[in-house]
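Q: Sequence in, structure out?
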Amino acid sequence: MGYPDQRFDVNLSILFTELPLLERPAAAAAAGFTAVELWWPWIETPTPPQAELDALKKALDDAGTHLVGLNFYAGQLPGPDRGALSVPGEESDRFRANIEVAADFAASVGCTALNALYGNRIEGADPQVQDALALENLVLAARAADRVGAILLVEALNKPESPLYPLVSAPAAIEVVDRVNAATGLGNAKFLLDLYHLSMNGEDLSQVIKAYAAKTGHVQIADNPGRGAPGTGSLPLERLLDELKDAGYTGRVGLEYKPGDRPSAEAFDWLPETARADR
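A: Exactly. Output:
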């Protein structure tokens, strides 16, 4: 057990960001990783030119890296936004325009997990209206994901850093997962269990793992406090990942932490090189 027994991937939207997007897959490969994930890389547009999608696919292929997780369009992320799918008007339209684009790109690179960030509460908008819109859009996203053999992920964030985001606990995200699965009958909506976010919310992480491992489709980690690499804070991440494995979780663990003041390539000293390649 322990870190060497896990399957890790690197989030290229928070690590290696000192490099242009198309150079990051090769940098991750040089650090020993073969699996990567991404937030939606084109924050200004849900529908980038095909040439840009092709260039990203080529960069992944040339590096020998496998994209295992991708966010749908989520607005300005990093930035003030936390998703678009529950935001009435233009942002919801942009999310819908992105659904098939993201799904088709995922299919082209063999990515089987698509993350749909819920979006912030908007001043003056009725929360019930936002939630109804969210369900409509999540149903569309779940169907598109299913079409390409992927799961749809619903993520809980943390209230201190995302005070307008309504899904700031594991039960809140699970409720949405269950609602989407009930509406589609597909069963491909899953929980994205991020140990950093849940710890920031003060949740009992061991209890969350016991309760929801069976509904978890992906895991992400960073230490707390600081959102740095494992060992920079006080979370018992190695033990928690063992608990996830014991509870039946067999998926990957996304490294979604900040490298600190050093180059990203130096932020993996906690993990033996032999344990970095996907298995």
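Residues 19 and 42 are 15 Å apart (CA to CA).
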